[in-house]
Amino acid sequence: MEGLTPLGPGREFDRIREVLKGARIGGGGVRVPPGDDATVLDPDLVISTDLAVEGVHFRLDWLDPHEAGARAVGAAVSDLAAMGAGLLGVLASVAVPEGEVWAPRGASFMAGIRDRVEELGGRLLGGDLTRSPSGLVVDVVAVGRTHRPLLRSGGRPGDELWVTGRLGGASGAVRLWEDGRPVPAPLRLRYAHPEPRLSEAIWLVEHAHARAGLDLSDGLAGDAGHLAAASGVGVVLEASALPLEPHPEVSLEEALHGGDDFELLVALPPGAETDGRADAFRRRFGLLLTRVGSLRDGSGVALLEPGNDEPVPLTRGGWDHFRGREEEKR
Fold first, then answer.
1. Three-class SS state of 123
2. Among 169, 194, 166, 196, which residue's Cα sits nearest to residue 184?
3. 232-262, pLDDT tens digit by residue?
4. Residues 136, 103: contact at Cβ < 8 Å?
């Protein structure tokens, strides 16, 4: 698998590695092969695909169809942000069940896709429409452009790890829904309306000299593991530094393992707080930028908790579609 960016651990990623074994993945105009959040084609075209399945990625007793369609676009376009790319547009392939109940739901779902693309400054480029035997399904192909792609590789020992925004809110909302409890509006918004950090990522590349990065879709622990594997380094996360969503239902557990934050995790050269890069970002975007750890020689992800002198390896990563819910909780 020459040219493949190394992926972190997990059953989902074991299956991806198996699929790509022996595949032709580089050359022929491919600048960035599989292993990052998107592929880059010569000279600067960025393409990613993201699948959203009812009952797996969203539920219509949590979101209305318009919100669900819009959410699918936000999640897909976040992969462009992870690459430091701007948005050109999306293609969306939708499968809708038949029946009188589903006709208006399908129309609202597709309107949500269209409206969110336009809100983000892109165009609906096309797609496909077919029938589903059960539940809504959408595959969103996001298309963008970048002159300087932000890759998961490139981090160096001594670099600092920074995240945008706050963590754990979307996962907290899911846990409350699953427990049958009311979901506060701020947490619901974090789940229903992911914000792709498009301009923020470009700024971090051009002005803060980001060396590596990705978006946080599967939880900080799991996604930090991908950055560690791709860059050939170890990651130390500082538990006390994580910028949790300010709500009693959001815990360190949600931030590390929950997923669906769609914030950026970037490796910056040392000193961003003292040399003004972090403050310049905050002034420019009105958004938190928080140092949450560092890169070091070694491999894997470890967590430094208050009162401890040494970080402890994290054996549990982020969300994995091929691991059961009970396993996820352990």
1. strand
2. 169
3. 999 999 999 999 999 998 999 999 999 999 9
4. no
Q: What is the pTM of this model?
A: 0.89
**Token output for 229:** 């594997």
Query: For residue 307, what pLDDT is reported?
Result: 93
Q: What is the pLDDT of residue 2?
A: 43
Is residue 79 in some structural domain? yes
How many Å is the maximal CA-CA distance in the chain? Answer: 62
What CA–CA distance (Å, rounded) separates 80 from 114?
Answer: 18
Q: Is 116 part of any domain?
A: yes
Do 296 and 256 share a structural domain? Answer: yes
* Beta-sheet pairing, 86-96 with 137-145: antiparallel
DSSP reduced 3-state for 163: strand
Domain membership of residue 241 (yes or no) is yes
Number of H helices, E strands in the chain: 10, 13
- Give the CATH number for residue 222: 3.90.650.10
Are 209 and 312 contained in the same domain?
A: yes
110/280 Cα distance (integer angstroms): 38
Residue 168 and residue 96 share a domain: no
How far is CA 204 from each of CA 84, 138, 270, 281, rounded to the nearest angstrom?
8, 31, 14, 8
